[in-house]
Amino acid sequence: MGEVQDARDVKKTCVAPAVKSFEHYDFPRGKICCSLAWLVAKAYGTDSIPADLKDPFYTDQYEQEHLKPPLASLLLSADLYCRAGSLVLSSDADHPLLGHDAVVQALAQRGLYVTDQERLVTERDLRKRPLQMSAHMAMIDTLMMAYTVETVSVEKVMACICQYSYRDPEVETPYDTEDAVNTWINK
């Protein structure tokens, strides 16, 4: 008989998906999958994601992929957006985000507008059935941008550069988040 292995010695393993060639990779599906995974992780926390929301798609008997109904319902009800938006936008308990429109308004107050093909996304677009995925992707992208702006401010980047690196007097202060990230990478 073999030895019994101590549970503390067991390492968690992750099964990596097969790598597809560039020609066979479905970029729109990949973007949707990653964006939804980010939204769900922000809404529930990385360690508390419900099992039925870990993979956003299921395959039917005809081998066609569809968004899982529980996830579609959460997108239509704005539950995921309100949860993630409250965390990302540091919404206080006195003014919780309730509904698509509240999240859109909170983003707009920070100068971030939810647009799909240069058109403002409305609550009606986000509640439409069947799911208007481009509107939902625009909402998720804007929430991601808000998270980036909150996490990576010009001031935080410059303080980090000054703390850990020699500051070259010729380096100009970045003018926005993207420029700040580039400056941080270069330094």
From TrEMBL:
Highest rank taxon of the organism: Eukaryota
Sections of the chain in a coiled coil: none
Protein name: CASAMP N-terminal domain-containing protein
Domain CASAMP N-terminal residue range list: 17-150
GO molecular function, one term: microtubule minus-end binding
This protein's GO CC annotations: microtubule minus-end
GO biological process, alphabetically ordered: cytoplasmic microtubule organization; negative regulation of microtubule depolymerization
Natural source organism: Pogonophryne albipinna
